[in-house]
C-alpha cells in the first residue's frame, strides 16, 4: 500500500499547488516512474495469472504461427518475445506500460492543468486499468494519442493510432465512429 500512497503523493503535491513545470525532463521522469510502477508489478491486476499462464503457451511456439493466428498480433508478439527470449510477463508489462504512459502523459500535457489531470487519472486509469488490464491499457494509450490527432484535424494520424491500438485490443475500433 505504501508505494501507491507515495506515487499518489508524488502527483498530488504539484497538482494541488498548481505547479506549472511540465518540461520534457518532467515527462521523461514521470514516464520512468509509470514504467517502474506499472511494468514491474508482481501478481497485481486482473489479468496477471492469465498472462503468466499464457506465457507457457507461447513457449517454443513458432513465431509466425503465433502472429498469424492471433486476433491481436502486437500483443501476441510481445508475449512470444517474453516467453522465448526471457523476461516473461515483465517484458509484456514493461512495453505495455511504455505505450500506455506515453499516451497518458501526452494527453495530460495538453490539458490546462496537466498535474491535476494526471492526479485524477491515478486512482482508476493508472491503478485499475494500467495495472489491471494490460492489453486494454495499451489500447487506451493509443486512444488518447488518436484523440489528440483528431483535435489537430490529422485524420490519417488518427486512423494510424487506432490501427496500432487495435493490434493490442480490438475495442479501440469503436473510436472510428468519431
Summarize the helices and strands and which ones pair or pack:
Layout: H1 2-16, H2 24-39, H3 48-58, H4 63-69, H5 73-85, H6 89-109, H7 114-132, H8 134-151, H9 155-166
Helix pairs in contact: 1-7, 2-6, 3-5, 4-5, 5-6, 6-7, 6-8, 7-8, 8-9
Task: Give a structural overview.
The chain has helices spanning 2-16, 24-39, 48-58, 63-69, 73-85, 89-109, 114-132, 134-151, 155-166. It is built from nine helices and no strands. The protein has 178 residues and is mainly alpha-helical. The longest helix has 21 residues, at 89-109. 74% of the residues lie in helices and 0% in strands.
Which keywords apply here?
178 residues
Question: Which percent band covers the strand fraction?
Answer: under 5%
Give the CA-CA distance, first to last residue. 39 Å
Order of helices and strands: HHHHHHHHH
Give a short account of the largest sheet.
none
> What does the overall shape look like?
globular
Summarize the structure.
The chain has 178 residues and is an all-alpha fold.
